[in-house]
Amino acid sequence: MSSQELLKLEAKVTSEVFGRGHVYSDVAAERLRASQQHGGNSVELAAYDDHARWWPVVIEEIGEVARAYQEAPERVHEELIQCAAMLCAWAEAARTALNK
Question: Domain-by-domain residue ranges, the chain?
């Protein structure tokens, strides 16, 4: 099963378990969207210990949350979901690598 197919399955399961409108569904949908947008360049394909790939993306997402909080509070939820999606992807990469 490809990583994109796994993300689709994960989004489906998450939606069924947590229901629409729940933040976990939002995070799963964001992971799928980001994966589709970035394709083979997605940070999700990086090894969990590839800090040069993960940290810049995560720090950028955290910065976007802070910026939204200051400049566009209506975007805070969206930015938090994007940040959570990247952190979940990193955690999943670590779990996968460390459980081998």
Answer: 3-98
